[in-house]
Amino acid sequence: MRSKIVELEAFALDDEGRGIVRDEGLTVFVDNLLPNEKGKIKLDFAYGKLKEARLLQRLTSSKDRVKPLCPYYSKCGGCNLMHLNYEAQLEYKRMKVQNLLHKFAKIDFEVSKTIGMENPYHFRNKIQVPVKNIKGKIETGFYEINTHNLVPNSNCLIEDNRARHIIEEFKKTCEEFKLEAYNEDTRRGVFRHIIIKTSRYYQQIMVVFVTAIDEIKGKQNFLKAFLKRCPEVTTVVQNINKRKTNVILGEKERILFGSGKIKDRIFDLDFYISSKSFYQTNPIQVEKLYKTAIDLAALKGDETVLDAYSGTGTIGLCASRHAKNVTLVEVVEAACKNGIENSAINNIENAEFVIDDCTKYLVKHKDNQKFDVVFMDPPRKGSTNEFLTALIENSPKKIVYISCNPVTLARDLSILKDKYEIEEVIPVDMFPHTSHVETVVGLYLKK
């Protein structure tokens, strides 16, 4: 291996928030280096190719650099932009979307200012942490960057404040009953993860114990002691995952206490949340995200709407109050069942859930069912060529695309742009202090 040390200045941030520098024509990405900052950087080469770039010393500081409030920031891989002030984070996300649209879709469009938070801390309503045995004690926390080394964390600054007390009392109860964490090497032990879901509106809390075994020794007494310490918990679920895998949840689960679900509210609608159902993790920003999407749809009340990739129906059901009828299509049966339940508790009668693959559904009905407006919120991998082709043939007047990945968003817009005009591109910051950004795009049919 060959190494060299160079002094270089970053001129931009990449998609993952790393500083971009150039050395003799080579583009290099460096953690914790902001634009206009110069650093002493060690470059390691193997077989003629760059293997690693590491910042040894920062020589200058950007006006946008701040000291991260989190004491675990240098080790935990959760928040990678906490050293950048929040206004600069929002501008970084705006430019990230704009640059990726240009790079992958050849679209030069002035992206709107990112919709941010007034207080970008303690917003996350879903907390899932691994459980480990460290020096004879049960610990929880986050994995160190690119490792499975647990960093114990007693105060995560993006979690709902209520979660920390529950986690600490869980650890004390485990110690009291001599219940150990699961060991990946020996495949012995009980607890793999603890998941906490909180309701902001109704103040309800769900705790999910992910275990490697079916029966917890002294389960009833353990549960009674835990609930005595945490009376704010309204339901407890045990999820059993015996597989040797990094996937957190297993297939089998049982309700240990309460109803097995909690309820939260978006706008004036209630939504049930189960242990496995998807629900936006930032309840403060979710109304801003959905309001942005519904505003771009410009619904007048007489439209036929399709909500593709609908999940549990949060977007489509929120839009149903402004439309004639909404068809919600989702391939995951459990999500559809949750959506039907959510529709019922809100007395929504103009929404129909369909269990089907979105692409197959639209191809199947492209000739006999026309939509005025289509909401689409695909997974990170984006949509499919077949879906987009069928969508173009269906020719809705409006498309509102909600994306969690601007790379696949740009790819899909490159297909839609010949027939659809972009009205507005609006990033929404659902995950402060990270490089992740949600984007809402409004498109209208060209005449």
3D structure, described in words:
This protein is 25% helix and 31% strand. With 447 residues, it is of the alpha+beta class. The strands form five sheets. It has a seven-stranded mixed sheet with strand order 9-8-7-10-11-12-13, with helices on one face. Strands 18-17-16-19-20-22-21 form a seven-stranded mixed sheet, sandwiched between helices. The protein has a three-stranded antiparallel sheet with strand order 1-5-6, with no helix packed on it. A hairpin with a 2-residue loop joins strand 5 (38-46) and strand 6. Helix 1 packs across helix 9 (406-416), helix 2 runs antiparallel to helix 3 and helix 7 (358-364) packs parallel to helix 8.
Shape: globular
Largest sheet features: 7 strands, mixed
Question: Structural class of the secondary structure composition?
Answer: alpha+beta
Q: Give a count of the beta strands, DSSP E runs of length 2 or more.
A: 22
Provide the residue-averaged pLDDT: 95
Enumerate the spans where pLDDT stays under 50 for 5 or more consecutive residues: none
Helix content class: 10-25%
How many helical stretches? 9
- Side by side, the strands of the main sheet go 9-8-7-10-11-12-13
What is the beta-strand fraction? 25-35%
Query: What separation lies between the terminal Cα atoms?
Result: 60 Å
**Backbone CA Rg:** 24 Å
